[in-house]
């Protein structure tokens, strides 16, 4: 068996075609062997455009292909778990796009499947491999900003299209599920803890019936995280990691362009005019390439994946608690 892991792509979803597949094809660890769509012509068109050898007119046919070792699942949220289970039961390792599921119970069902089938199932939070986040974690661990006490974040863009799956409640749509999961995930990672209680504030679109603007507070043993996410605000993202003696500002925290350098600001707080700020720059890199490679290495060599099922379940538990808080008007424990 060669070094490259042979991948199949479950659907011609936009994120797969525009971002993930071209990024994965840049890796020496990955061979994108097949793609499937319920519309065979669509699969053939994408396969032809991206140089993928095989195109299937059904997901089942792709899962039956004995050559495929790993599956990338970018289906709509409500299909993540059912098709991840089918892939695992076909003996394929599964990298599932975030959020892994639409409920905690559904996510937990994958644990037994993983145990029974012996495959790897992981959640695709591509930010985990980006050098800027790795460096932020290093700086926090080294005490560069003192004790991390507060994380503040914003993630927003404008998409009022009723036909877009992110705006369909039955498909697990809404701001919190689509992008709020990022500040939750990175806050848990930077603190290295789980929140003890959370509070959520939602603004629902009256026509679309999904949350168009959500803010949440997360109380951790070591501090607090506060974030706002929206699918009907200006395109913007920022994360501030505030410590007792300094802060780190993640300028493009979640979707830094792969063809441009990214950078973080480290501020010792000596003055408000920025006299204490130094910049650390990272060469252009593609976090989807890094993600696919990390997963492929785990398949070939063993070892852990960046976001295993146990972590994905904990993130989903926070999302669920924020939703419960919206309904109860009270703090809720994940």
Please explain how this structure is put together:
With 334 residues, this protein is an alpha/beta fold. The strands form two sheets. The protein has an eight-stranded mixed β-sheet with strand order 8-9-10-7-11-12-13-14, covered by helices on one side. A six-stranded parallel β-sheet has the order 3-2-1-4-5-6, with helices on both faces. The longest helix is centred in the C-terminal third of the chain and has 20 residues, at 309-328. Helices cover 34% and strands 28% of the residues. The protein starts with a strand and ends in a 6-residue tail after the last helix. Helix 4 runs parallel beside helix 5, helix 5 (104-117) packs antiparallel against helix 9 and helix 7 packs across helix 9 (309-328). It has nine helices and 14 strands. The model has no long low-confidence stretch (mean pLDDT 97). It has helices spanning 14-24, 40-50, 59-63, 80-89, 104-117, 131-141, 175-191, 287-301, 309-328; strands spanning 5-10, 30-36, 54-56, 70-73, 93-97, 121-124, 148-158, 197-204, 211-219, 224-230, 232-243, 247-250, 262-267, 277-282.
Strands, helices and their partners?
Layout lengths: L4 E6 L3 H11 L5 E7 L3 H11 L3 E3 L2 H5 L6 E4 L6 H10 L3 E5 L6 H14 L3 E4 L6 H11 L6 E11 L16 H17 L5 E8 L6 E9 L4 E7 L1 E12 L3 E4 L11 E6 L9 E6 L4 H15 L7 H20 L6
Parallel strand pairs: 1-2, 1-4, 2-3, 4-5, 5-6, 7-10
Antiparallel strand pairs: 7-11, 8-9, 9-10, 11-12, 12-13, 13-14
**Beta-strand content:** 25-35%
Q: Could you spell the SSE succession in H and E letters?
A: EHEHEHEHEHEHEHEEEEEEEHH
Kindly provide the radius of gyration, computed on alpha-carbon positions and rounded to a whole number of angstroms. 20 Å
Taking the sheet with the most strands, its summary is: 8 strands, mixed
Structural class: alpha/beta
Q: Count up the helices.
A: 9
Unreliable stretches covering 5 or more consecutive residues = none
The tally of strands reads 14
Could you tell me how far the N terminus lies from the C terminus, measured between alpha carbons in angstroms?
Answer: 44 Å
Strand order of the largest sheet: 8-9-10-7-11-12-13-14
Helical amount among residues, as a percent range?
Answer: 25-40%
The pLDDT mean sits at 97
Global morphology: globular
